[in-house]
Design goal:
heterodimer, A: 362 residues, mainly alpha, 2 domains, B: 1023 residues, Cytochrome Bc1 Complex, Chain D, domain 2, two-stranded parallel ribbon, 35 helices, 46% helix, extended
Chain lengths: 362, 1023
């Protein structure tokens, strides 16, 4: 038993979980898309999720974490997530086939038929409202609100967790300075979502689900949503314990667990480890951080140009310059998160640019 | 499902399906809504309230039964019979009564109508009055002069006329209404006259049954009727339900919610419904009455419910009305299991202010009673405080308010003159091996230094400490030598009789012997000190230690020889056989290196640098440095005076607010014990080093609190004490704030405690007698001598032979007499008593505090009113003389100089009563009066008989048999005797009285078990 639990604990470590998620993401969207779109796949996934959770409940730690009044709805939402990821993919696969056969997509066939607002829409919505209302009642009765004592400045909860929907952001704080993870990225997420319709020049896929016609858009969006948001929320909710340390799903949340975190700045690698400048860090920050600054600027300036000339040449032609560069900038910023994560896991990189003199770290 | 061309009949969903779905989901929602209402309605506390109503009803029913049985049946029957008889006879007058009643109704109607008319007219009159005042009164008010005879204006005149007219009307109507009332009253009286006897009988019957009727009415309050249930039904209960949350809001006590202070709200009484109602003492919980209503929660107690609530003492979440969520804390493992089963109890992790387990709750008195050292009536807490003091917790741990107390252990500044190196080593290594009642805790070879390496380190430090202490010591040589010889048997009797046992313990006299007394246990003193030192110490303790609390007992040379002989015979042979051993100098250097590695002066230290430094030191320097470091680390200076370390702060953590420290700030190590502060403290006291188990630490980081070998009871007491040291800030008026008078009393008390006056006298500060008949009376009395008057344990057969109780001392004596007596107590009042009041070496300031203490305690003027000549002459004087003779006062009390005979000293009554001439200038007249009235109430245990039992006079022929007058005259006469003797001044010196001391009677023999000292019995129990 302990072999299995240890193995699952191991699989859930941030780097591995992230990598496995990426692999699964690729497998589901590309080689096995059509298999995944089948109903049996949905059932298999839902049932195996349920079985995993139920069996794991035998473990006291897992049970405590999952049945915490704050966490129960999050667990339930994971099932909803699976369903709502599967549903559009299912339709997309069907539509892709129809398009390949030269037929109308499903929606267009249905759109020719008319139904009445009453009772088809209003009445069914009303029934839904009743059901949701009942569900809320039962939730309120069975799971008491997890209220605690008045906030005490000398006795803060450990771990201090953000509301579940912000746990992705909180997880980002592990890798980035607060001004980036807490201010710039959240803003860019919102801005990015707002500009999406304006930079999207692809007329296809309007009003119906498809995949093949919008491969890039769907893959990028789902990567951001599932991998960079949902996985981080799951990580933050279930796998981060006291002191924001990582705890496997079956690992006891021991307050005293220690993790050796010794992170190193890029400049320290260059000067101290590689022995440049006789092992001494330059006193002036600009010289010290020059490499990092060049790298960051290069990434953000040369990156788009390079992409425009190479792999994304086609996009530039289709979208035109303004749209293309906005899109690429946002894309690169999004990619910076996994890049930074990987750098942290592999070489313990703390900051690429570290200028504590001005509270500016990247 | 879908059709191709839409028409009103074509629907996406079939109507039937939708309706079915709607129906089913609506039923589900209805069910859930009902469930929600029931869930919200079915609160735990309602169940308790319902149960309580039933319980109370049954109780009242029983009381009704009892009350009915208590009725005077005969009388009730007789009255009832009389009533029926009267009713029968009144039938004859029925016709007359009927007419009268008819007339009465008529009169009544007439009166009501007339009153009605009068009131209507009065209303109109008031309007007219207002109108007139409005036109005329304004003028006058605004200063317009209206001369006599000035004609009123037309408007004014009209108003005036109208007013007058109404006035006449009102007057007439008022008269006629009153007349109607008079007529009606007359008729009523007439009817009553006829019914006179019957009414009287009815009244009598009612009076007889009043008790039962009252109970029946009370019962109906507790009965659950349909209408009451309906009132409490869901939704309907918004108006005035029978079951409701009860709460006490205490505006003067605030709860700290960190960013705000809120009024304390306690809802405990929602379930604890009879907590402040007497009569439910035997009820099951939660309906039981508070066990001590006279002190707590009772309406007339100093802590009524509405002023203190519950959680200020018991802690817990007062706002909650749920058993688990209010953070009840079980008393023990057993109760925990019971609660888990019964209430689904579990720990409320988020709650900081959990309820304090019941056995520790008395410590919470200190939350409000911070200003006094001892809290009246809190006997358990007082015992804890006394233990904490005597064990010397404050030596290492700062406790707010305890900074003034002298160090708990002897000074080591002249130790060379008292002890030798070998003794010190053996003693410090294991104090228990010397005396199992040693107060000194065991510092070395405790649980966390068991490995061979650390045992060596401990020995190295031990020897360094002994050597260093001796090297610091001044030379000391006694200047007094007691005569050679000495009789140990006589010394033993002297030890028992003269008062040593008030402070010291001795194995032969186990009754009052205690582990943590005020002074060291002397059972093995012969293996510690030598004859020269002891003789000097007994003669004058200050010679060796200037600030000692040990008093001189004015012992004669022979007495000192005898006492020394006795004390030196008390040896511990096993201890004497122990080897001190030799230190390993290499290990000492190694341990010193450990210290030096951390010495800021050596920083940055390398192993090599420290090694070279240590090698460069001489042996003496190594020991000196190691000694200083070890003493500093173990904190020896906290209890002992050590040269150069007198003012260093204690080495332990401050305890002033320890009771409020959060549980997660305590290091439980890897011990699997309950995670609560109380359980941590228990564990700490049981095995002080046990939290080191399984933890990897360097030698110098090991825990170092020494082992006191506290037993279970002592641990409980200390936990009670420490949990009471909280950070809660409660101000006036809820907290006890001493006024100027009380503050003076408290200051004096502190001096009294410091000199351990309570070792011999009952001072009634830690112990306060309960009224007889109190449920805790016996338990309370049994503990009395553990707190105060410990020496009285040895006088339990005849307390009058022991030191006098000081309970009424305040009102008894004059302040200047107290001051003089403290300065020179050698002049005995009761010369037959063997116990001696010692000569304390109090500072003048301290004496003054004690004097003020008693004066304030007795509500005396301070300084006292000037001493005046007693006023008694003529008839009163003659009467007093007659009483003196009649009551044979002179049989016990001598008048002036009198050479006591051997008989008197050996138990004759003259030896136990004070010379009466010494009352003047010493006693207050008021007190003498009270004493004469009831001697036992003023001096418990006195031999003085009461001659005026309950105010009846023993001499009816004197002063008309008036007890008050007799007592008053006798009191004045007693004072007069002293006044005359001293020639108008108090008698100050004994004059030519002989100096015969009482014969010391033999001390009781007791079996002394020579059990070997138990070693480390508790350390074995490490969890």
């Amino acid at each position: 038993m302990s072999f299995i639990t240890d193995f699952i604990n191991f699989l859930c470590r941030p780097a591995i979980l992230f990598t496995l998620s990426c692999v699964a993401f690729y497998l589901v969207l590309f080689p096995f898309r059509e298999k995944f779109a089948k109903k049996s796949a949905l059932y298999t996934i839902l049932v195996s999720m349920a079985v995993f959770i139920l069996v794991s409940m035998l473990n006291p730690t897992f049970r405590d974490v999952v049945t915490k009044a704050d966490n129960v709805p999050i667990v339930l939402m994971l099932f909803l997530l699976a369903f709502f990821c599967w549903l559009p993919l299912n339709k997309a696969v069907k539509n892709d086939k129809l398009i390949a056969e030269g037929k109308d997509v499903e929606n267009k066939q249905e759109a020719k038929e008319l139904v009445f607002t009453w009772p088809d829409l209003i009445f069914s919505e009303f029934i839904c409202a009743i059901i949701v209302w009942s569900a809320l009642l039962i939730w309120a009765i069975t799971i008491r609100a997890p209220l605690e004592e008045p906030a005490n400045p000398v006795e803060t909860p450990n771990p201090s967790k953000a509301p579940w929907y912000f746990l992705g952001l909180q997880e980002m704080l592990v890798y980035f300075d607060p001004w980036l993870a807490g201010v710039v990225f959240p803003t860019l997420i919102v801005v990015g979502l707002i500009v999406l319709p304006y930079i999207d020049v692809n007329p296809k896929g309007n009003g119906y689900y498809c995949f093949k016609e919008r491969k890039f858009a769907i893959t990028t969006y789902l990567f951001g949503f599932l991998i960079l948001w949902i996985v981080l929320i799951v990580l933050g909710t279930f796998l981060r314990g006291p002191n924001w340390n990582f705890y496997g799903p079956y690992e006891v949340w021991d307050l005293h667990k220690l993790e050796a975190l010794r992170n190193v700045n890029l400049s320290e690698y260059i000067f101290r480890y590689a022995g440049l400048n006789g092992g001494k860090l330059p006193d002036f920050w600009l010289f010290r951080e020059l490499v990092g600054i060049v790298l960051v600027i290069g990434y953000m300036v040369a990156g788009p140009i390079l992409l425009a000339k190479t792999v994304m040449k086609g996009f530039l032609e289709k979208m035109g310059k303004p749209r293309f560069y906005i899109m690429v900038t946002i894309l690169l910023l999004m990619a910076s998160l996994p890049i930074k994560m990987i750098l942290r896991w592999t070489i313990n990189l703390k900051y690429i640019v570290a200028i504590p003199e001005y509270f500016f770290n990247i | 499902m879908a059709s191709k061309n839409a028409s009103p009949d074509d629907k996406f969903y079939k109507s039937q399906t939708l309706l079915k779905a709607f129906g089913i989901s609506s039923v589900i929602m209805l069910v859930f809504t009902l469930w929600m209402i029931l869930d919200d309605f079915g609160r735990e506390w309602k169940k308790y309230q319902l149960e309580f109503f039933n319980y109370r009803k049954n109780k009242i029913e029983k009381q009704i039964e009892e009350a009915k049985q208590g009725l005077d049946e005969g009388k009730v029957k007789e009255t009832q019979a009389r009533l029926t008889e009267l009713e029968a006879s009144s039938k004859d007058k029925a016709g007359q009564l009927k007419t009268l009643q008819k007339e009465l109704i008529k009169l009544k109607t007439a009166r009501i109508n007339k009153v009605d008319k009068y009131q209507a007219a009065k209303g109109i009159y008031d309007v007219r009055k207002y109108e007139y005042e409005n036109v005329y009164g304004h003028k006058v008010a605004h200063g317009e002069k209206i001369e006599e005879g000035t004609r009123l204006s037309k408007k004014e005149q009209d108003a005036r006329e109208k007013l007058n007219k109404e006035w006449d009307k009102v007057k007439g109507l008022s008269d006629s209404a009153n007349a109607a009332q008079i007529a009606e009253d007359a008729k009523t009286a007439e009817i009553a006259q006829i019914n006179l006897e019957k009414d009287a009988a009815e009244k009598e019957l009612k009076k007889l049954q009043a008790n039962v009727d009252r109970l029946v009415a009370a019962k109906s309050n507790s009965e659950i009727t349909i209408s009451k249930l309906l009132r409490s039904a869901p939704i309907l209960d918004l108006a005035n339900p029978v079951f409701k949350v009860q709460q006490t809001v205490i505006p003067t006590i605030r709860d700290d919610v960190f960013f705000a202070q809120v009024q304390k709200v306690d809802r405990c009484t929602t379930c604890h419904l009879a907590i402040d109602t007497p009569g439910f003492e035997d009820a099951p919980q939660p309906y039981r009455t508070h066990p001590n209503l006279d002190l707590m929660l009772g309406a007339t107690s100093p802590h009524p419910t509405e002023k203190v609530g519950c959680t200020v003492c018991h802690s817990g979440r007062g706002a909650s009305v749920d058993f688990v969520r209010s953070a009840h804390t079980p008393r023990n493992e057993e109760q925990k299991k019971e609660w888990q089963k019964k209430y689904g109890w579990h720990e409320m992790h988020h709650v900081i202010e959990k309820m304090i387990p019941l056995q520790y709750v008395e410590g919470q008195c200190r939350v409000c009673h911070k200003q006094t050292e001892y809290v009246p009536a809190a006997q358990k807490l007082n015992k804890s405080v006394q233990l904490a003091r005597n064990a010397g917790c404050y030596g290492c741990h700062r406790i707010e308010g305890w900074d003034h107390i002298r160090k708990p252990a002897p000074s080591l500044k002249k130790v060379k003159g008292k002890l030798n190196h070998d003794w010190i080593v053996r003693w410090v290594r294991n104090p228990k091996s010397f005396n199992d009642h040693a107060r000194m805790p065991a510092q070395f070879h405790q649980g966390n230094t068991e490995s061979a390496e650390y045992t060596g380190y401990q020995e190295a430090e031990l020897f360094a400490i002994a050597d260093y202490i001796l090297s610091l010591s001044e030379d000391y040589k006694p200047s007094y030598t007691a005569p050679a010889g000495g009789n140990a048997e006589r010394g033993r009797n002297l030890f028992y009789a003269v008062g040593c046992l008030g402070c010291h313990g001795m194995d032969e006299f186990p009754e009052g012997r205690r582990r943590f007394g005020a002074a060291p246990d002397l059972s093995t003193i012969g293996s510690k000190v030598n004859r020269e030192w002891l003789g000097q110490w007994l003669k004058n303790p200050r010679h060796y230690w200037k600030d000692t609390a040990m008093p001189a007992l004015r012992l004669s040379d022979t007495e000192i020889s005898d006492l020394s002989a006795y004390l030196l015979s008390k040896k511990n042979t096993q201890f004497e056989k122990l080897e001190a051993g030799e230190p390993d100098f290499e290990v000492q250097k190694k341990v010193l290196s450990l210290y030096l590695m951390r010495d800021p002066k050596m920083a940055p230290a390398t192993t090599e640098k420290v090694h070279q430094f240590v090698e460069g030191l001489s042996k003496k320097e190594v020991i000196e440095r190691l000694g200083v470091n070890a003493i500093t680390r173990y904190g020896c200076y906290g209890c002992h005076e050590i040269k150069g370390m007198e003012t260093m702060p204690g080495s332990g953590v401050e305890l002033s607010e320890h009771g409020s420290k959060l549980v997660n700030k305590f290091d439980f190590g890897y011990l699997d014990i309950e995670k609560s502060v109380a359980s941590w403290l228990h564990q700490k006291f049981q095995a002080t080093r046990s939290f080191d188990k399984g933890v990897v630490k360097e030698y110098l980081d090991l825990l170092r609190m020494p082992n006191y070998y506290f037993d279970e009871g002592e641990r409980n007491q200390l936990v009670t004490f420490i949990l009471g040291l909280t950070a809660q800030k409660i101000g006036p008026p809820s907290a006890k704030i001493l006024d100027a008078k009380e503050a003076e009393i408290e200051e004096g008390s502190r001096v009294i405690h410091q000199y351990n006056c309570q070792g011999c006298h009952m001072v009634e500060q830690m112990y306060r007698p309960l009224p007889e008949g109190h449920p805790d009376f016996e338990k309370h009395e049994k503990e009395k001598w553990e707190l105060e008057g410990r020496i009285l344990t040895y006088f339990s057969e005849d307390e009058s032979k022991g030191p006098p109780p000081l309970s009424s001392e305040g009102s008894r004596v004059r302040s200047e007499w107290v001051h003089n007596f403290l300065s020179n107590p050698s002049w005995k009042l009761r010369r037959g008593i063997q116990v001696r009041m010692p000569s304390y070496n109090m500072k003048n300031d301290e004496q003054n505090r004690v004097v003020t203490h008693w004066a304030r305690q007795g509500n005396l003027e301070f300084p006292n009113a000037p001493l005046e000549a007693p006023e008694i002459s003529g008839q009163r004087l003659e009467a007093a003389k007659a009483l003196w003779n009649k009551l044979q006062c002179g049989n016990c009390h001598t008048v002036g100089q009198y050479n006591l005979t051997q008989d008197d000293l050996e138990g004759g009554s003259k030896g136990y009563a004070p010379d009466i001439t010494r009352s003047y200038g010493r006693l207050n007249k008021d007190w003498i009066v009270k004493l004469l009235k009831n001697p036992q109430s003023m001096v418990p245990g006195t031999r003085m008989p009461g001659f005026w039992p309950e105010g009846t006079s023993p001499a009816p022929e004197v002063l008309g048999g008036d007890s008050e007058k007799q007592i008053d005259a006798l009191a004045d006469y007693v004072l007069l005797l002293g006044y005359q003797k001293g020639g108008g001044k108090p008698v100050t010196m004994p004059g030519d009285l002989n100096r015969l001391e009482p014969v010391i009677s033999p001390a009781p023999k007791a079996e002394v078990s020579q059990e070997p000292a138990k070693e480390n019995e508790n350390a074995e129990k490490d969890a």
